[in-house]
Amino acid sequence: MELLGSLTVLAGSIFLFSAGLGVLRMPDSYNRIQTGTKASTLGTILVLGGLALLHPAWTWKLLMLIFFVLLTNPVSSHALARAAHSIRITEAESTVVDRLEEEEDRMHTGDRT
To answer: pLDDT tens digit string along 20-75?
Structure first.
């Protein structure tokens, strides 16, 4: 059980490292938010799950933390992306589609189809 817990913590650490690397490498704020959120959520869950395997007495507390991470990370990244979009932070040139801008344009012109 100790080996499985250690490997799970190691896998989580690799995902957390990749999240940091992704934040450095992505071309714009929206991609950075997405990369940081997805990889750090999985990395945190794996680290906390590995700790639960290593320390069974902490399992319920760690499960509550995992639940909290699953609830807050997507909501906070969504709020950050919406705020960035509302203050007109530009996307990378490789971004092809902006559905939120299309929806806002449609709402302003009155076309609600």
So the answer is: 999 999 999 999 999 989 999 999 999 999 999 999 999 999 999 999 999 999 99
* CA 54 distance to own-chain centroid: 25
Residue reference for tokens 């997805």: 38
Q: What share of the chain is helix, strand, coil (3-state, %, to 5)?
A: 80, 0, 20
The secondary structure of residue 27, as a DSSP letter, is S
Dihedral (Cα; 100, 104, 110, 113), 10-degree rounding: 0
The tokens 């996307």 sit on which residue?
Answer: 91
Which amino acid belongs to residue 113?
A: T
Is 95 within 8 Å of 28 (Cβ atoms)?
Answer: yes
Contact 7, 50 (CB under 8 A): yes
What burial class does residue 34 get, using C-beta atoms within 10 Å of its C-beta: 0-12 exposed, 13-18 middle, 19+ buried? middle
Model-wide pTM > 0.85 = no
